[in-house]
Amino acid sequence: MAQLTKKRKAVESKVDKDKLYGLDEAMGLVKAVNTTKFDASVDVHVRLGLDPRKADQALRGTVSLPHGTGKTKRVLVFCTPEKEAEAKAAGADYAGLDEYLQKVSEGWMDIDVIIAMPSVMAQLGKVARILGPRGLMPNPKTGTVTNDIASAVQEVKKGKIAFRVDKFGIVHASVGRVSFTPSQLTDNAHELIATLVRMKPSSAKGVYMKSVSVASTMSPGIAVDPKSIKV
Questions:
Q1: How many whole angstroms separate alpha carbon 192 and alpha carbon 186?
Q2: Same fold for the pair 18-68+160-228 and 75-157
Q3: Looking at residue 1, what is its pLDDT?
Q4: How remote is the C-alpha of 195 from its chain's centroid?
Q5: Less Cβ around it within 10 Å: N or C end of the chain?
Q6: Do residues 223 and 206 touch, judged by C-beta distance below 8 A?
Q7: What is the pTM (predicted TM-score) of this model?
């Protein structure tokens, strides 16, 4: 088994593994235990009382974070020629159809989010096997299949993120960077969790929010008391 370095041991000692922290306190601590030299991502992990095998409990959606993600997302818009100028004006990094379908089919993946017009979705079938596993396939449920291209692009650029529950019933999402203030991280995390609560499937039984934890890249996880989060 790999031995912990002195630096890692010092960081681990700051986190009480038996304690459930309040969300505000956890976000202050996640900054204190960060050891990376880069502006690391701060992630929230929420384990929900869902059975993702059931269609009505395979939760997925979007949320606009009040303070953004701290990362500039590269957006590709699949659209007809008359919509290309609108997409670019709204902030899209790339816009078009045939040219980008070809590039994607050849392995180009220099993008974070893809938005598409409903009328071109059929043509995306040829790259669905490439985009699907990477979570890039446009979907009406996440607002990435729309004719209102400008609004969709602007929302993504301002901090709109997509999330989905994994096969274990956990939602993982980035809510900012360690350079954010604790209050900014708390606001973003609260917005995500409040959205999950609003989207609770009516068929979900028992405890809905089973556990919440936060962590920055390569830092120890910090358990949050779900009861401390008022939504």
A1: 10
A2: no
A3: 45
A4: 13
A5: N
A6: no
A7: 0.79
Domain ranges within the chain, ordered by starting residue = 18-68+160-228, 75-157
What does the alpha-carbon distance between residue 205 and residue 166 come to, in Å, rounded to a whole number? 18
pLDDT single digits (tens) 67-124: 998 888 899 999 999 999 999 999 999 999 999 999 999 999 999 999 999 999 999 9
> Taking the C-alpha atoms of 190, 187, 61 and 102 in order, what is their torsion angle to the nearest 10 degrees?
-150
Check residue 2 and give its pLDDT: 54
Among the CATH numbers 3.40.50.2300, 3.40.50.790, 3.40.50.720, 3.30.565.10, which is that of 75-157? 3.40.50.790
Is pLDDT at 14 greater than 90 in this prediction? no
Closest C-alpha among 182, 198, 151, 161 to residue 33: 182
Angle at 62 between CA 60 and CA 63, to 5 degrees: 135
pLDDT digits (tens, 9 = 90+) for 122-153: 999 999 999 998 889 999 988 899 999 999 99
Q: Which CATH architecture has domain 18-68+160-228?
A: 2-Layer Sandwich (3.30)
Q: The tokens of 56 are what?
A: 């009505």
Query: Quick one: how far is CA 64 from the chain centroid?
Result: 10
Query: Could you give the CA distance from residue 72 to residue 69 in angstroms, rounded to a whole number?
Result: 8
* Residue in the block written with tokens 């008359």: 82
